[in-house]
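Now read this:
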Amino acid sequence: MRYDAGDHLAVYPVNDSELVEKIGKHTGKDLETIFTLINTDEESSKKHPFPCPTTYRTALTHYLDITMNPRTHVLKELSEYCSDPAEKEKLRLMSSTSPEGKALYQQWIISNNRNIVHILEDMPSCKPSLDHLCELLPRLQPRYYSISSSPKLYPNTVHITAVVVEYDTPTGRHNKGVATTWLAVKKPVAGQELPTAPIFIRKSQFRLPTKPQTPIIMVGPGTGLAPFRGFIQERNQAKEDGQAVGETVLYFGCRKKTEDFIYEEELLNYEKSGLLTLHLAFSRDQAHKIYVSHLLEQNADEIWRIIVENNGHLYICGDAKSMAPDVRNIVMKVMQDKGQMNEQQASAYLKKMETQKRYSADVWS
């Protein structure tokens, strides 16, 4: 397998065996039973929704998503299996398009974060056929992670930077992220065979400039730091090989310096060596919250110098909802203030940067 800094690692996760057992219990099926699902649409190129024949246990463990909030069409089908009229009506209502139904779905399924197991637990009269359930549930998708290493430094290993997802839901249940909790226990033990995981590399457009002397600004709060760790390793390698390396600027933010400043030692060493300029925002370490966006606003001169005067590249990684648009707006404002551009011109400038691959985002919601 080969990878480049900026690529994504895909992991095929495995569902929690406890949840799988619960589905077997609620549907009254022996999970070792072998079955085959055949597509009734003969025109379709796909004969089966997942590799068949297989056992119910394998399907529920590897192929079906049993932890997501079920969509309304699944609830509609489930309602047919309820012997209690009140439960049947509740599922029917949530699957309807009425304002009342939508509100109930939002509250009972989404806000309370119920998955298929929780629904079967909370609706004891609902006894769906496991065959039908295997047809209704969506496929378990691979999880994608930004690679946080450079093959120049780590040709035989690939690193990812992820938060282990674990939280309590409003109904008092303990939910775990499918991939991260499964990966977190895969720790090498001396004298034992190394743990394995099914993975593949997905190529991305998120790339360092071809010339190392091109200056770059990277904005990556939290685990958004991931691809930039690979970028910095690569630029450092170029520097050690005697190449001229342009300004390398990183904006990183987290809540508390003592708790979640990931790769602290590594980053500070790069800063000490003169390779890296660090701008750090620890939002909870003082009375008023300071975010990466605040630091960007304060450094308009640096942004203008690197991006416009020196034709540098700007990279953003992390939260797509608020962080990425915030950064874009700040850069727009810098263009307007420093370059005497109006909003339209600033927007056109950023669009041009995107087509030149000088403005890149690797974001998720």
In short: The longest helix spans residues 323-338.
